[in-house]
C-alpha cells in the first residue's frame, strides 16, 4: 500500500484545484519560504483525522479555508482527498484503490467520504487504525517532532516510545476505567446515602399506612350510612317539590288568562291614543292652512295698491325712455364717424414723421464724418497693407524650405528601408503570427475562465441542491413521523368509539346490544344524538354532566325491555328517556323577553345544540330550562332578572344554581371527552388526508431534487473533464505564444535602430507636413486680408472727394428737415389727444344707451304681465271666505279632542287598577316559585352531594343501598363516623402505596449496592491487567528500538556508538528515557552536550529506528534535516533513498542533497499573491533526456 495521489481545493493557500501524483520511492516538495509547502503536510494530516486546529497551525478549523488575496475572494469550503493504492488489501476494504475525502465549510459544518460514500470521522479513524497511518503513528514527522525529542525531558520523551509501542490506547482505556471507577464509587456513595434515608422513612410510613387503612374502613361505613340517609331525604324533598309544581302550574294558567284580558284592554287604549293623535295632526294641518291663507290675502291687498300706482305713470315713463334712447343712438353714430376720420389723419401724420426722421439721421451721418479722420484712416490702412505684404513673402520662403526638407527625408528613408528589408519582412510575419496566436490564446483563456466559472457555479448549485435536498428529506421524514402519529391517534379514537369507551357500564352494554340487534327501538345516548358547536362544548358538558349518557328510546315499553335485559345479563344500570312520555321543559316567554336584551345572554342550552326534530323533545327535556351566559358576572345579573328560578351556566363552565348558589373553578383538564371525540376524529381524519396529500407532493419534490442533483453531478463531471482537456490545450497555446513573443522580441532588438530612425523620419515628416499645411492656410488668409484692405482704401478715398464737394448743401438740407420734424411731432401729439377724447365720449354714450334699453324693456314687460284689478279683487274675496271656513273647522275639532281625551283618561285609570291586582297575583306565584326553586336547589344539592362525594346516581344508589328506616338515627350515626374520621387527623392515603414502593425500592437499592461493590472490584482487576500489558509492550518495543537505534546511528554518522537508557528501569509505567550518543572521534556523552547538528541527526536516527520497528506505508518528513550540514544532509538523503524500498517518503525540504535523491520533484510557487501553485519534475526522465 502507498499514497497514490493528493487532491485539494480551497485548502489554505491552494485556492485552485491541485493534484499531486505520488510514486513509490522518494517525492520531494521544494519552494521558497511562505510558498505553501508545509500546507501539503497539513492537508495529509487533516484527512487522516486531525481534529486540533492548533496542530494545523490555526486557531479554529475555519482557518484552513482559503482566506482570499489581493486579487481573489475568500472561498467558503475546503476539500482534500487522499487516494491510496490498496492492492495488498492492507486496509480492510475490498477495493484496489481507496479515496478518503474530508470537507469543511466556513459555517463550521464538516463532511467525510470514503470512496465518495458519506461516512463519519470515526469511520476514517477506524479505517486507518493499526495500519500505521493513524493519528498516533509516525506517518508524519515534522520539525516539531525532532524538537520534541531534542528539548523534552527524559520523562516527557517517554511519550514517543509509548506511541511507538501502541501503549497510548491502553493509557486512554485506563483513564476511562479510572473514570468509571470514580463514577462507580460516586454511585455507591449515593446509593448508600439513599439507603440511609429510606431506612429513616420506613417506620413512619408503616404507621401512616395503618392509619390510612383504618380511615378507608371508616369511610366505607360512612358511605353506606350517608347514602341511605340521602336516599330518604331526596325522596321526601322530591315529593314536596312535585306537589308545589302542580299548584304553580294551575296558578300560572290563571295568570296567563288575566294577562290576556289586560293586553286586550291595552290594545283598545292604544287605538284610542292613535285616533287622538290623528285628530291633533288634523288640527295642526288646519292651522297651517289658515296661516298660509292669511299671508296670501295680505300679499294681494298690497299688490293691488302697487298696481294702481304704476298704471297711472306708464305712458309718461315709456315716452321719456324712448326719446332718450333715440338721441343717444344718433350721437353714437356721429362720434363713430369722427373717430374713423381722426384715426386716419393720425396714421398719415405718423408715416410722414418717420420718413422725415430717417432723412435727418442720414444727413447727420454724412456730416459727422470728418475729413481729417478719413485721411488718417487711409494712412493706417496703407501701413497695415505693407506689413501684410512683408509677412506674405516670408511665409512663401519658409514653404519652399519645407518642400526641400521633405524631399531629403524621403530619400534617407528609402535608403534605410532597402538596408533592413529582410528583417522587416521577418518581423511582419512574426507579428502576424504573434497577434493571431495571442488572439487565440486570449480567446481560449476567456473560454477557460468561463468554464471555470461554470464549474464553480455548478458546484455552488450542487451544494445548494444537496443542502435543500437534505433539508427536504429531513422534513419528509418528519412528515412521515407526524402521519404515523395521526394514524395512531385516529385508530385509537375509532377503537374508543366502536367500543363505546368513556360510557357508563350499563349504557355501554345497551349500546352494544343495539349494535348487535339484541335490543330494539334504542336511538342512542344523548351525546350521540346532538351536535355541539365547539365554543359551547364546555358549557353543554356542565349542563348535561352524567345526563349526556341518558339513552333515548321510542316509548316506555322499549325502556322496560332494556332495563329487563340489563337485569337479566347483570350489565349494570342506565337511565332511559322514552320519547312518548317525557315532558319538555321551557322558560316562560316573559322571562325570555327580560333576559334576551342582556348583553351577556348567549341562549337557551337546548337551542344552542343541533339534533334531529324527532329527538328535540328529549333535548328540551334535559336542557330547555337552562340558560347559557358569557361570564359569571353576566350569569349573576341574569339570575337576578329571572328571580334565581333557573340554572345558568357560563361558557367557562361556572354555574349559578336556582336559589343563588354558585359552583365553579378550575376543572381537571381532559385530553379528550365524549363531547369532543367525534369532532377530534373528524379533525384528525381531515388533517391526515391533508398531510398525506402534501407528503405525496413533497415526495415528488424530493425525487425531483434528487434527479436534479444527479444531472448536476453528471454535468459537473463532464465539465471538469472538458476543463482538463482545455487546460492542456491552453498550456500548449501558451507555450507557442511565449515562443513567438521571444522571437519577436529578438527581431525587435535587431531592428531597434531602424525603428528609432524610422520613427524619427516619420515624426519629422509629420511636423514638416503639418507646418506646410498651416503655411498654406496662413498665405490664403493673408491674400484675403490684403484684398479687403485695398478695397477699404478705395472707398475712403472716394468718400473724402465727395465730402469736399457737397458739405454746404448737406448742412442747409439738414436744418430744413429738422424744423419740419419738430412741427410733425407736435401735430402728432395733438391728434393723439383728440382721438382719445372721442373714444372716451363714445364709451360713456354706449353705457347710457344700454341703460335706456334695459329700463324700457322692464317697463314693457311689467305692463304686459300685469293682472287686472277685477282679478285681484276676486282672489282677495275668495281667500277671505276660505279663512272664515278654516277657523270654524278648527273650533269643531278642538271640541271633539277634549271629549276623547276625558274618555281615555277614565279607561287608563281602570286598566291601572287591573294591572295592580295582576301584579299582586304574580307576586304570589313568584313566592311559590321561589319556594319550589329552593326545594329544587335542595334536591339538586342532595343529588350533587351524592354525585360528587360518592360518584353515584340516585337511581343506582336506590338500587344498590337500602333506604334508611329511621333517618334521624342514621343521621346521628353519620355524624359519629365523621367525628371518628376527624379524630384520625391528616390521613395520607398515599402512604399505603408509598410504603409498598419504598419497601420495594429499599430491596432494589440493597441489591444495587452489592452490584456496585462487585463492579468496583472488577475495575480494579481490569486496571491491573492494563498496567501489566502496558509494561510488557513498552519493554518489548523499547528493547527493539534500542537495538535499531544503535544500528541506524552508525549508518547515519558513519560510525560511533549510541544507546537508550531508562531512568527508572523498575517502574516501566513512569520511567523516563535518556539518549546517550558518541559520534565518531568523540567521547560518550549526553544528548544535551552534542552540537546542534549532531543532536538533530541523533533525533532523526531515533525516528528512523522507530520506523524500522513500526514500519508505515508512507512517511511525510517536513524539513526534518533543516539543522544538518551538507555532509549530513547527503547521508540523510541516501538513507531515506535506501529505506524508500520499504516505505514511501514525501519530503518537504530546502536542501540540495535531499532533492538529488528524490525520484519526483514538486515545486511550490506563489506567482499570484497568496495563491500556491505546483510544478512537477520526474528526475528519472530528466536524466534520460540529458543522456540522449
Question: How would you sum up this structure in a few lines?
Answer:
With 1188 residues, this protein is an alpha/beta fold.
Report on the structure:
The protein is of the alpha/beta class and 1188 residues long. Among the domains are: 1-139 and 1117-1187, Rossmann fold; 407-502 and 675-798, Helix Hairpins (Orthogonal Bundle), CATH 1.10.287; 533-605 and 612-665, Alpha-Beta Plaits. 71% of the residues lie in helices and 10% in strands. The chain has 26 helices and 23 strands. Strands 2-1-4-5-6-7 form a six-stranded antiparallel sheet. Helix 5 (168-312) runs antiparallel to helix 19. The longest helix is centred in the N-terminal third of the chain and has 145 residues, at 168-312.
Amino acid at each position: 500500500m502507498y499514497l497514490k495521489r493528493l487532491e485539494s481545493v480551497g485548502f489554505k493557500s491552494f485556492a485552485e484545484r491541485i493534484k499531486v501524483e505520488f510514486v513509490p520511492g522518494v517525492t520531494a516538495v521544494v519552494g521558497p519560504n511562505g510558498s505553501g509547502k508545509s500546507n501539503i503536510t497539513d492537508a495529509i494530516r487533516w484527512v487522516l483525522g486531525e481534529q486540533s486546529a492548533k496542530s494545523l497551525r490555526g486557531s479554529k478549523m475555519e482557518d484552513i479555508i482559503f482566506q482570499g488575496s489581493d486579487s481573489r475572494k475568500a472561498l467558503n469550503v475546503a476539500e482534500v482527498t487522499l487516494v491510496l493504492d490498496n492492492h495488498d488489501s492492507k486496509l480492510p476494504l475490498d477495493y484496489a484503490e481507496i479515496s478518503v475525502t474530508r470537507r469543511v465549510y466556513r459555517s463550521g459544518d464538516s463532511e467525510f467520504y470514503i470512496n465518495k460514500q458519506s461516512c463519519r470521522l470515526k469511520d476514517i479513524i477506524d479505517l486507518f487504525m493499526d495500519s500505521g497511518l493513524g493519528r498516533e503513528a509516525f506517518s508524519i514527522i515534522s520539525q516539531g517532532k525532532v524538537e520534541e525529542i531534542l528539548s523534552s525531558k527524559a520523562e516527557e520523551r517517554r511519550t514517543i516510545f509509548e506511541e511507538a509501542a501502541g501503549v497510548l490506547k491502553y493509557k486512554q482505556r485506563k483513564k476511562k476505567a479510572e473514570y468509571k471507577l470514580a463514577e462507580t464509587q460516586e454511585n455507591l456513595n449515593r446509593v448508600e446515602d439513599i439507603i440511609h434515608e429510606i431506612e429513616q422513612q420506613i417506620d413512619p410510613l408503616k404507621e401512616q399506612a395503618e392509619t390510612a387503612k383504618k380511615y378507608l374502613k371508616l369511610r366505607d361505613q360512612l358511605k353506606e350510612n350517608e347514602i341511605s340517609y340521602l336516599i330518604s331525604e331526596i325522596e321526601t324533598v322530591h315529593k314536596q317539590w312535585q306537589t308545589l309544581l302542580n299548584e304553580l302550574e294551575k296558578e300560572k294558567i290563571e295568570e296567563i288568562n288575566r294577562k290576556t284580558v289586560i293586553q286586550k284592554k291595552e290594545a283598545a287604549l292604544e287605538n284610542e291614543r292613535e285616533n287622538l293623535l290623528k285628530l291633533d295632526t288634523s288640527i295642526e294641518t288646519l292651522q297651517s292652512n289658515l296661516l298660509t291663507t292669511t299671508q296670501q290675502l295680505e300679499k294681494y291687498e298690497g299688490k293691488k295698491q302697487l298696481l294702481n300706482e304704476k298704471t297711472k305713470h306708464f305712458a309718461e315713463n315709456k315716452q321719456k325712455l324712448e326719446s332718450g334712447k333715440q338721441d343717444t343712438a344718433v350721437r353714437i353714430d356721429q362720434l363713430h364717424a369722427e373717430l374713423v376720420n381722426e384715426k386716419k389723419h393720425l396714421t398719415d401724420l405718423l408715416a410722414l414723421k418717420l420718413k422725415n426722421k430717417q432723412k435727418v439721421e442720414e444727413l447727420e451721418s454724412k456730416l459727422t464724418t470728418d475729413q481729417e479722420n478719413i485721411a488718417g484712416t487711409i494712412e493706417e490702412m496703407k501701413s497695415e497693407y505693407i506689413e501684410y505684404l512683408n509677412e506674405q513673402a516670408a511665409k512663401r520662403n519658409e514653404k519652399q524650405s519645407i518642400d526641400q526638407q521633405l524631399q531629403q527625408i524621403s530619400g534617407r528613408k528609402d535608403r534605410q528601408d532597402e538596408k533592413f528589408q529582410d528583417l522587416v519582412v521577418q518581423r511582419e510575419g512574426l507579428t502576424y503570427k504573434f497577434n493571431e496566436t495571442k488572439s487565440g490564446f486570449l480567446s481560449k483563456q476567456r473560454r477557460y475562465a468561463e468554464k471555470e466559472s461554470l464549474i464553480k457555479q455548478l458546484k455552488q448549485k450542487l451544494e445548494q441542491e444537496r443542502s435543500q435536498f437534505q433539508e427536504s428529506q429531513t422534513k419528509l421524514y418528519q412528515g412521515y413521523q407526524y402521519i404515523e402519529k395521526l394514524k395512531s391517534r385516529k385508530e385509537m379514537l375509532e377503537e374508543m368509539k366502536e367500543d363505546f369507551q368513556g360510557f357508563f357500564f350499563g349504557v355501554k352494554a345497551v349500546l352494544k346490544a343495539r349494535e348487535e340487534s339484541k335490543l330494539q327501538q334504542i336511538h342512542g345516548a344523548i351525546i350521540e344524538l346532538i351536535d355541539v358547536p365547539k365554543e359551547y362544548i364546555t358549557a353543554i358538558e356542565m349542563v348535561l354532566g352524567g345526563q349526556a349518557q341518558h339513552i333515548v328510546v321510542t316509548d316506555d315499553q322499549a325502556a322496560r325491555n332494556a332495563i329487563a335485559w340489563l337485569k337479566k345479563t347483570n350489565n349494570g344500570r342506565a337511565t332511559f328517556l322514552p320519547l312518548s312520555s317525557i315532558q319538555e321543559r321551557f322558560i316562560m316567554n316573559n322571562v325570555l323577553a327580560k333576559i334576551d336584551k342582556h348583553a351577556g345572554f348567549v341562549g337557551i342550552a337546548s337551542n344552542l345544540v343541533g339534533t334531529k326534530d324527532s329527538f328535540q323533545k328529549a333535548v328540551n327535556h334535559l336542557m330547555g330550562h337552562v340558560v347559557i351566559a358569557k361570564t359569571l358576572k353576566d350569569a349573576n345579573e341574569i339570575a337576578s332578572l329571572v328571580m334565581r328560578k333557573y340554572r345558568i351556566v357560563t361558557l367557562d363552565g361556572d354555574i349559578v344554581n336556582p336559589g343563588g348558589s354558585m359552583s365553579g373553578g378550575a376543572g381537571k383538564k381532559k385530553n379528550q371527552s365524549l363531547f369532543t371525540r367525534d369532532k377530534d376524529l373528524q379533525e384528525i381524519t381531515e388533517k391526515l388526508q391533508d398531510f398525506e396529500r402534501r407528503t405525496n407532493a413533497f415526495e415528488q419534490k424530493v425525487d425531483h431534487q434528487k434527479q436534479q442533483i444527479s444531472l448536476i453531478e453528471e454535468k459537473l463531471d463532464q465539465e471538469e473533464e472538458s476543463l482538463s482537456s482545455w487546460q492542456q490545450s491552453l498550456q500548449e497555446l501558451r507555450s507557442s505564444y511565449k515562443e513567438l513573443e521571444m522571437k519577436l522580441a529578438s527581431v525587435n532588438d535587431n531592428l531597434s535602430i531602424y525603428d528609432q530612425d524610422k520613427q524619427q523620419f516619420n515624426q519629422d515628416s509629420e511636423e514638416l507636413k503639418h507646418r506646410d499645411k498651416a503655411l498654406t492656410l496662413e498665405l490664403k488668409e493673408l491674400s484675403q486680408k490684403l484684398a479687403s484692405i485695398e478695397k477699404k482704401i478705395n472707398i475712403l478715398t472716394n468718400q473724402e472727394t465727395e465730402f469736399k464737394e457737397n458739405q454746404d448743401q448737406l448742412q442747409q438740407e439738414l436744418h430744413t428737415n429738422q424744423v419740419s420734424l419738430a412741427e410733425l411731432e407736435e401735430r402728432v401729439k395733438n391728434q393723439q389727444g383728440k382721438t382719445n377724447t372721442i373714444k372716451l365720449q363714445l364709451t360713456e354714450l354706449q353705457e347710457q344707451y344700454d341703460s335706456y334699453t334695459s329700463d324700457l324693456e322692464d317697463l314693457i314687460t311689467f305692463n304686459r304681465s300685469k293682472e287686472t284689478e277685477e282679478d285681484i279683487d276676486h282672489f282677495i274675496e275668495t281667500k277671505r271666505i276660505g279663512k272664515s271656513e278654516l277657523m270654524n273647522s278648527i273650533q269643531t275639532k278642538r271640541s271633539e279632542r277634549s271629549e276623547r281625551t276625558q274618555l281615555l283618561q277614565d279607561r287608563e285609570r281602570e286598566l291601572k287598577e287591573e294591572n295592580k291586582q295582576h301584579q299582586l297575583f304574580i307576586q304570589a306565584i313568584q313566592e311559590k316559585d321561589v319556594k319550589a326553586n329552593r326545594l329544587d336547589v335542595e334536591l339538586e344539592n342532595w343529588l350533587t352531594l351524592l354525585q360528587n362525594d360518592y360518584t353515584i346516581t340516585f337511581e343506582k344508589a336506590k338500587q344498590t343501598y337500602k333506604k334508611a328506616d329511621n333517618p334521624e338515627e342514621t343521621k346521628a350515626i353519620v355524624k359519629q363516623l365523621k367525628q371518628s374520621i376527624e379524630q384520625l387527623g391528616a390521613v395520607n392515603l398515599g402512604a399505603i402505596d408509598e410504603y409498598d414502593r419504598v419497601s420495594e425500592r429499599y430491596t432494589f437499592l440493597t441489591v444495587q449496592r452489592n452490584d456496585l461493590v462487585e463492579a468496583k472490584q472488577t475495575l480494579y482487576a481490569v486496571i491491573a491487567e492494563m498496567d501489566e500489558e502496558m509494561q510488557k509492550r513498552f519493554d518489548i518495543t523499547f528493547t527493539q528500538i534500542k537495538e535499531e537505534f544503535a544500528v541506524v546511528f552508525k549508518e547515519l554518522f558513519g560510525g560511533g556508538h549510541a544507546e537508550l537508557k531508562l531512568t527508572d528501569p523498575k517502574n516501566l509505567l513512569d520511567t523516563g528515557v535518556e539518549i546517550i550518543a558518541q559520534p565518531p572521534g568523540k567521547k560518550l556523552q549526553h544528548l544535551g552536550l552534542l552540537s546542534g547538528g549532531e543532536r538533530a541527526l541523533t533525533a532523526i536516527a531515533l525516528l528512523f529506528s522507530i520506523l524500522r520497528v513500526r514500519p508505515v506505508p508512507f512517511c511525510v518528513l517536513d524539513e526534518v534535516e533543516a539543522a544538518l550540514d551538507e555532509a549530513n544532509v547527503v547521508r540523510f538523503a541516501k538513507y531515506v533513498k535506501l529505506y524508500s524500498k520499504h516505505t514511501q517518503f514525501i519530503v518537504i525540504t530546502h536542501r540540495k542533497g535531499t532533492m538529488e535523491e528524490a525520484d519526483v520533484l514538486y515545486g511550490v510557487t506563489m506567482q499570484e499573491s497568496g495563491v500556491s501553485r505546483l510544478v512537477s519534475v520526474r528526475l528519472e526522465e530528466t536524466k534520460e533526456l540529458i543522456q540522449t
